[in-house]
Structure formats: C-alpha cells, structure tokens
C-alpha cells in the first residue's frame, strides 16, 4: 500500500510548473487587456486627482412624507449619473450615502464646472404656460423668445416677434396697476371652467363657478399679484425663493435669464401641463437649412405627446405672451418659446439664439432633468490637483516604506527563503495594480486614499501567509526530515491556517464594505480584493515555486544562507533503526 502512495506524491510534486505557467499566463492576459482597454493606470478618486465633491440631501415634499425611499434614491442616482456623464464627464461618481444623501464626485476636467451646475439642478422639470412676463426691474418690453414648432412642420425661424408686456406705462403707479390687472386677467382666463367642465347628476352642465371657489381663486390671484409685483429677479436671494413650496398644480412666479439680451425676466406661470417624465429624448442639433443655428429637438412619450398637443393647441390661440410655455427646472425658467400652432406629431423643437453649449445644456436638462425627489445642496468640497498629488505621493511613500521594511525582515530572518517571499509579493503587487486599472472602466472603481491604505495593510496579510508556510517547513526540518518531504508535509497544515486567516480578513472587509459608505468602502474593497489575491498567489505561485526550489542543491542541502540550515534550526538527528550485533557463536557449541 505504501508504494502507490509514494507514486501519487511523486506525481503531485512533479507538476508545480503547470501552476506557475497558469498564473504567468493569467498575468500576461490581464496586462494585455489593461493596455488594450486604453486605461493603463488605475482611475484615481477625487481626493487624489482633484475635483469637486457635492453632498445633496433629499427633502420631503408637502403631502408626501414617505417619498424618500430606496427606490426613489436609486432612481435619482441613475438620472444624475446619466446627466453628468452626458456632458462627457465619464469619470464622475454618483452614489448614495445613508438613507437621504447622495454624494457626487466630479473630477477636475474640461466639463466639470458645467457638470457641477447641472448636478446642483436637482428638482423636477415642468412645462408651464406663461400668463405674464416682463424684464425684472423694468417696464420695457421683454426681448424676443425662441420659438417652438413641430419637427414635422416647417422649420422655425429666428425672426424677432413682438411680445406683449405686463406694463405699458412709464409711470410706476400705472405700471403696477396694469401689471396687477394683467396677472388677474390671466389667472381668471386660465382657471375659468368650460361649459362642460361641471355636470349635475341629471346630466345638465353648468359653467358658473361656486362662490367659495371664486373667493378662493380671487385670494390666490391677489397673493400672486403681490408676489409678482415684489419679485426682483436680479436679486439672487429672491430668485432662490421664487415659487418656493408651490405645487405643480398651482400657478406660481418664477425667474429666467433671456438668452438674447442676458437680462433677468420674471414670470407668472400657470399650472404644470407636461412633466419632465413625459420627455422620451432630447438632443442638440445644428440646423443647416435656416439661420436659426443650434436648436433642441424633443421626442415625447405617448402620454406626453397627447399632453403637449393639448397645451400647445390652447396656447396657439392666445396672444403674446400667453402663447408661450416656460420650461421650468428647479424653479428657474430655462427657456420660454412661443407656440405658432398645435404640435401633434409627438416631437417638437426649440429654436432661437442658441450657441452649441447652450443648446447641449438645454437638451441635457430636458433629457435627464426629471428627478423623483427634491434635493438641497448640503456641502461642496473642492480638492485641488496639487493637494491630491501630495496625498498620492504620501501614500506611495508609505507603501514603499512598509514594503521595504517587510523585505528587510524577510532577508534578515529567512535569508534564501526571502527570494520566494519577495517574488510572491511582486506577483501580488502586479495582479493588484492590473485589476485596479481594469476595474476602473468596468465597475467604476476609483483608487482613493483609503484604498491605498487598504493595499498597504494587505502587504502584511500577504507576508503573513509566507511566514506561516515557511515556519511549517522549518518545523518539519526540526523533526529530522529532509527538505522535499518537509515541504509536502508542511503544506496541508499551512494551507488550512492560511485559508482560515484569509477568510477572517475577507469577512471583516465584506462587513466593513456593507455597513459603511463613501471612501471607507474603498478601503474595504481593496482589502477584500488583496485578500483574495493572497490566496491565489500562495496556491498558484508560492507553493509551486517552493516545490521547485526544494529540488535545488542550495536549498536541499541546507546551506547556511538558505534559511533552512538544520543546525541553525536545531534539528534532531534522523531516527534510524539499528540492529543489535549478533552474539558470537561458541565453536564448542557449533
């Protein structure tokens, strides 16, 4: 029975080259993939590369106390991610933190400022009819607005159109009176029910509003008049508070900057008729067939198409400015095109005095602007590239010092065995670097300072596995065994210890990754990744390499610089059976 066991052992010991070849092929393939992917370096986090970190906190809407939930937060993250990456900021990170916070990390780059501006624009998108408008702080006529037309009809022109104003008198008193009358008339026209809007149980219809309804509408109109008269859109604080807390179903006041004149305008807007969720897609297109230049094309969903056709049909019958609709994002009017005809084709375009940047920005807002929640900007942190470079340099220096100290310890204590340990550390470092570079474009992994710390901690974990294996081999040599049998007998016991140790480290990393958020997850992820790589390196590189070197005379003979000198280890002499000498035979007895 002993002979077959010996044969199997010899066969197992004769295959270490296969394991070494397998891991070397894997390293070559991963390295080739890294260069072919176009990302030969790991993607750096904001604390190392520099950029802006924005913390957005979700707010409960009136009447919706349970709106902040996991589903809505994940939807908001997805929309924000598509919004910033739609600007070409492909390395931006958007992730939740806790139950009501979203962290947006925008690396320093060409479009990072615009991305920050659009990420801060986090509220819902609405199409509201314009009831009244004028240049804020002035009684002069407002500048022409862009036009909206169906993409299936004739092209829109950039021809200036006369805009009715809320005020026609130079006198402040007359201006205020005319302005209030315009708002009141507009609100009445917008809220007056049609003859078929109310029906009695008997089937008859009535167009007369109830006294209580009239009183309520009159009070709302008076309040809105006062807000509109007092609103100064040139004041940033007033712009931020304009229309605050207003429901989508109620009229409101708002501010917007005219694309042509650059002046701030104030508006009275009717209830929202179309929501941002009704837009299927939007794009900035250069119109080569007219002088309008850049325009924005929109395509609505099936439900949005009907809503848009209804509202544009109504607006086309009105006089300016009540033939305009305002595209409102975060309470700001980003565009206020007028309508020439009902748009029934399911698509539309906005043309005017747009340059490429303005058209692309507006298209991006239309496409990704509708969020399920309202957010406020809690904090903004800017990290310069110089500071990030200093932190990266400090982290690399710390890692180099740690690696150097480990290598010195291995050389001094293990001597020749340190060659195996250092080679294994190099293989582990190469695999870690290549995987970090590949995981950047694959899953969005970014190497931040905590992740660097996790990689440094992993040096000790990897070195600990080598030490466990080497000490088991030395224990076998102390028992009087030669090197090759000692390696094979030490491996099963060392393997169990290494697996248990790495399992505990991986479990700790997994728990830390699950229960923490933000940058601490980078530390946990790197720690878990390097722990898994430690098992791979020990099984497919360290053990096979030790088996091969055990056949070399330098190690097998126990050279004093091999780290396996039996005398230095205090090895016992080999146990051998000795025969007792036979007693001499007496010739007489023979």
Q: Structural class of the helix and strand makeup? A: alpha+beta
| % residues in beta strands | 15-25%
Shape: elongated
Q: What number is the mean pLDDT?
A: 76
Characterization of the model:
Helix 14 runs antiparallel to helix 15. The chain has helices at residues 2-13, 16-36, 46-49, 70-85, 112-120, 172-191, 211-230, 236-241, 302-315, 356-368, 385-414, 418-443, 449-478, 483-515, 520-549, 553-556, 566-569, and strands at 51-59, 93-97, 101-107, 125-135, 147-150, 252-257, 264-269, 274-275, 279-287, 293-300, 325-329, 332-335, 338-339, 347-354, 374-383. The chain is elongated. With 590 residues, it is of the alpha+beta class.
Helix and strand topology:
Blueprint: H1 2-13, H2 16-36, H3 46-49, E1 51-59, H4 70-85, E2 93-97, E3 101-107, H5 112-120, E4 125-135, E5 147-150, H6 172-191, H7 211-230, H8 236-241, E6 252-257, E7 264-269, E8 274-275, E9 279-287, E10 293-300, H9 302-315, E11 325-329, E12 332-335, E13 338-339, E14 347-354, H10 356-368, E15 374-383, H11 385-414, H12 418-443, H13 449-478, H14 483-515, H15 520-549, H16 553-556, H17 566-569
Parallel strand pairs: 5-13, 6-12
Antiparallel strand pairs: 1-3, 1-15, 2-3, 4-7, 4-8, 4-11, 5-14, 6-7, 9-10, 10-14, 11-12
Helix pairs in contact: 2-12, 2-15, 4-5, 4-10, 6-7, 11-12, 11-13, 12-13, 12-15, 13-14, 13-15, 14-15
């Amino acid at each position: 029975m002993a002979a077959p066991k010996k044969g199997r052992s010899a066969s197992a010991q004769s295959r270490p080259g296969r394991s070494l070849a397998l891991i070397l092929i894997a390293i070559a393939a991963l390295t080739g993939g890294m260069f072919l992917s176009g990302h030969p370096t790991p993607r750096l986090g904001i604390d190392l590369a520099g950029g802006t970190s924005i913390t957005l906190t979700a707010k409960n809407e009136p009447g919706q106390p349970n709106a902040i939930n996991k589903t809505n937060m994940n939807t908001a993250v997805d929309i924000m991610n598509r919004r910033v990456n739609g600007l070409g900021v492909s390395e931006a990170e958007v992730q939740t933190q806790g139950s009501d916070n979203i962290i947006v990390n925008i690396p320093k780059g060409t479009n990072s400022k615009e991305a920050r501006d659009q990420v801060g624009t986090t509220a819902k998108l609405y199409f509201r009819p314009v009831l009244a408008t004028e240049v804020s702080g002035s009684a002069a006529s407002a500048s022409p607005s862009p036009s909206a037309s169906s993409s299936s009809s004739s092209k829109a022109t950039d021809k200036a159109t006369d805009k009715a104003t809320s005020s026609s008198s130079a006198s402040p008193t007359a201006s205020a009176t005319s302005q209030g009358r315009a708002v009141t008339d507009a609100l009445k026209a917008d809220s007056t029910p049609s003859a078929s809007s109310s029906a009695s149980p008997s089937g008859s219809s009535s167009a007369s509003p109830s006294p209580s309804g009239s009183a309520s509408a009159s009070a709302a109109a008076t309040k809105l008049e006062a807000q509109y008269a007092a609103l100064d859109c040139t004041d940033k604080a007033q712009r931020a508070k304009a229309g605050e807390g207003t429901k989508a179903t109620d009229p409101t006041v708002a501010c917007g900057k005219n694309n042509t004149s650059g002046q701030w305008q104030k508006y009275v807007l009717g209830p929202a008729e179309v929501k941002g969720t009704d837009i299927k897609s939007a794009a900035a297109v250069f119109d080569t067939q007219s002088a309008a230049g850049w325009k924005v094309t929109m395509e609505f969903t099936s439900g949005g198409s009907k809503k848009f056709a209804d509202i544009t049909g109504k607006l086309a019958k009105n006089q300016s400015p009540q033939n305009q609709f305002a595209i409102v994002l975060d309470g700001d009017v980003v565009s206020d095109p007028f309508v020439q005809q009902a748009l029934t084709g399911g698509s539309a375009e906005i043309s005017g005095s747009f340059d490429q940047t303005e058209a692309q920005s507006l298209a991006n807002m239309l496409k990704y602007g509708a969020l399920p929640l309202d957010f406020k900007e809690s904090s903004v942190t800017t990290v310069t590239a110089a500071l990030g470079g200093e932190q990266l340099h400090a982290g690399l220096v710390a890692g180099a010092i740690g690696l150097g100290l480990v290598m010195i310890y291995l050389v001094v204590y293990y001597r020749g065995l340190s060659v195996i340990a250092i080679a294994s550390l190099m293989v582990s470092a190469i695999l870690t670097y290549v995987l970090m570079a590949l995981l950047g474009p694959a899953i969005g992994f970014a190497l931040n300072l905590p992740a660097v710390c996790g990689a440094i901690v992993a040096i000790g974990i990897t070195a600990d596995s080598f030490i466990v294996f080497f000490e088991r081999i030395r224990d076998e040599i102390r028992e009087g065994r030669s090197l090759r049998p000692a390696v094979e007998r030490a491996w099963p016991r060392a393997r169990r210890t290494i697996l248990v140790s790495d399992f505990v480290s991986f479990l700790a990393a997994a728990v830390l990754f699950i229960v923490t958020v933000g940058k601490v997850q980078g530390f946990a992820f790197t720690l878990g990744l390097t722990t898994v790589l430690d098992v791979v390196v020990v099984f497919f590189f360290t053990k096979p390499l030790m088996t091969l070197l055990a056949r070399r005379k330098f190690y097998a003979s126990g050279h004093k610089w091999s780290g396996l000198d039996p005398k230095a280890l205090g090895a016992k002499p080999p146990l051998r059976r000795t025969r007792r000498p036979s007693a001499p035979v007496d010739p007489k007895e023979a």
